[in-house]
């Protein structure tokens, strides 16, 4: 029988005890400085302000409010004169009204009606796919929330120790979902950081998009428990994002931590326009780490079209020490050293990647997820694995020119990745077809990192 006890101790520390594992958390109050607000998705206040401007436009909303406004894609449009335009979807409540996505000029409060009923990279038809939009509050970029987490076994021996940052406080101009830093397993360093700074989506035939999404705007999900730090909650029951519950409703925003048996799950739900994303890390007592991502959406017309999600994990490795790691790739028969920066693809030989400390010989194997589609089937995906020399300026791909594709190839510059500080980028690719919605919500995608035997 599982049981939990919760108490607040000194220094805002919190403990949750289970039969197999216990977790110690110390709250930390700090946050990355927010980016230029004109380059961010609309926060709740701006969205609601835009909706009020629409209510003055007789072509859009009459006095009986026949439309339900929703967050649309793209998140914003920058006009030639620099004006910020916020696309707002207007889903009709009654027959006889037309579904439309309008643009709201936040400078002069004017409402733009697009020629085809939606911006060029969106569509608004009578067909909707996705779950019902709960319309709950979201978080802005820059909301503080991080904590030091210690996981102990039944003998009170420390198994895992790491810093967790909630998505709103995560690194990178677009955020990076749950941001895990300084990861130690049984007192030995495994990685400096693991997160997802790049997330994009491409539609077949460019029916919509393509879009570069953001990973800092948190959405509500179901997590019952006790808050031990801002946006950090220990739960007594397994948290449920939209992936598990099939519902956009929730009672918590931030990162939920749950332990059961030998597994500790760290999970959050994010949103970007009509998309819903679940960011998750699972830590096991045998040293295994499974970072994965789930994809869903609320009602809109675009996601009825077949599209492809791409998530790129940045795995800043540091086995035993940050500046003395090497990498090998398994080609199906042999392990081959990688000495220079390179981009590689998964293939039929079931490639694996080994990151190891050449002095201590301790190693981790990076294994692609079974549901992760290969980049060779989709040129937009660009690649599956990039092995790079660490650079402090390469937190994301630096693509600020409007491109949505992952620009990691720009970092392949023939630098050494032998006995040095290495970073692996891992891309997981997934086809989202509304015709198989139930199947889609039964799994996540992402790699597995296992200690080498």
Keywords:
mainly beta; Beta-galactosidase, Chain A, domain 5; twelve-stranded antiparallel beta sheet; 3 helices; 4% helix
Structural account:
- Helix content is 4%, strand content 39%.
- With 453 residues, the protein is mainly beta.
- It has two domains: 44-137, no CATH class; 143-451, Copper amine oxidase, catalytic domain (Beta-galactosidase, Chain A, domain 5), CATH 2.70.98.20.
- The strands form four sheets. Strands 1, 2, 3, 9, 10, 11, 12, 13, 20, 23, 26 and 27 form a twelve-stranded antiparallel beta sheet that branches. A six-stranded mixed beta sheet has the order 14-15-16-17-18-19, with no helix packed on it.
- The radius of gyration is 22 Å and the shape is globular.
- The model is unreliable at 1-19 and 438-442 (pLDDT under 50).
The shape is globular
Number of helices: 3
**CATH architectural type of the largest domain:** Distorted Sandwich
In whole angstroms, the N-to-C terminal distance is 33 Å
* Mean model confidence by pLDDT: 89
Number of domains: 2
Secondary structure category: mainly beta
Runs in which pLDDT lies below 50 for 5 or more consecutive residues are 1-19, 438-442
CATH superfamily of the largest domain: Copper amine oxidase, catalytic domain
The CATH topology of the largest domain, please?
Answer: Beta-galactosidase, Chain A, domain 5
> What percentage of residues falls in helices of 4 or more residues?
under 10%
Counting DSSP E segments of at least 2 residues, the number of strands comes to 28
């Amino acid at each position: 029988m599982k049981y939990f006890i919760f108490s607040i101790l000194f220094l805002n520390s919190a403990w949750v005890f289970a039969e197999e594992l216990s977790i110690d958390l110390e709250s930390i109050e700090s946050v990355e400085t927010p980016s230029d607000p004109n380059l961010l998705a609309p926060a709740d206040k701006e969205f609601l302000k835009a909706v009020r401007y629409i209510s003055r436009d007789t072509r859009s909303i009459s006095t009986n409010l026949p439309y339900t406004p929703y967050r649309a894609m793209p998140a914003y449009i920058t006009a030639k004169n620099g004006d910020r335009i916020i696309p707002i979807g207007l889903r009709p409540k009654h027959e006889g009204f037309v579904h439309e996505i309008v643009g709201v000029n936040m400078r002069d409060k004017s409402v733009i009606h697009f020629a085809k009923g939606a911006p060029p990279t969106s569509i608004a038809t009578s067909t909707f796919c996705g779950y019902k939009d709960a319309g709950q509050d979201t978080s802005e970029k820059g909301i503080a929330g991080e904590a030091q987490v210690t996981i102990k076994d039944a003998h009170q021996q420390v198994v895992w120790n790491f810093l967790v940052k909630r998505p709103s406080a995560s690194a990178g101009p677009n955020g990076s979902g749950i941001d895990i830093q300084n990861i130690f397993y049984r007192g030995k360093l495994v990685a400096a950081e693991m997160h997802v700074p790049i997330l994009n989506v491409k539609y077949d035939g460019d029916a919509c998009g393509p879009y570069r999404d953001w990973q800092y705007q948190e959405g509500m999900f179901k997590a019952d428990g006790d808050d031990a730090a801002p946006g950090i909650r220990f739960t007594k029951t397994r948290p449920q994002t939209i992936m598990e519950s099939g519902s956009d409703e929730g009672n918590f925003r931030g990162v939920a931590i749950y332990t059961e048996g030998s597994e500790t799950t760290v999970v959050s739900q994010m949103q970007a326009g009509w998309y819903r994303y679940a960011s998750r890390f699972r830590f096991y007592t045998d040293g295994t780490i499974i970072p994965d991502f789930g994809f869903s959406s609320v009602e809109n017309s675009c996601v009825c079209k077949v599209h492809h999600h791409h998530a790129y994990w940045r795995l800043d490795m540091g086995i035993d020490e940050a500046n003395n790691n090497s990498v090998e790739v398994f080609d199906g028969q042999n392990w081959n050293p990688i000495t220079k920066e390179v981009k590689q693809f998964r293939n039929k030989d079931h490639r694996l990647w080994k990151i190891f400390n050449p002095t201590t010989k301790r190693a981790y194997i990076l294994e692609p997820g079974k549901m992760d589609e290969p980049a060779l089937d989709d040129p937009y995906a660009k690649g599956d694995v990039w092995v790079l020399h660490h650079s402090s300026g390469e937190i994301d791909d630096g693509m600020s020119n409007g491109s949505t594709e992952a620009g990691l190839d720009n970092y392949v510059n023939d630098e050494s990745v032998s006995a040095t500080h290495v970073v692996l980028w891992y891309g997981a690719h997934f086809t989202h077809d509304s015709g198989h919605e139930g199947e889609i919500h039964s799994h996540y995608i992402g790699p597995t990192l296992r200690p080498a035997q």
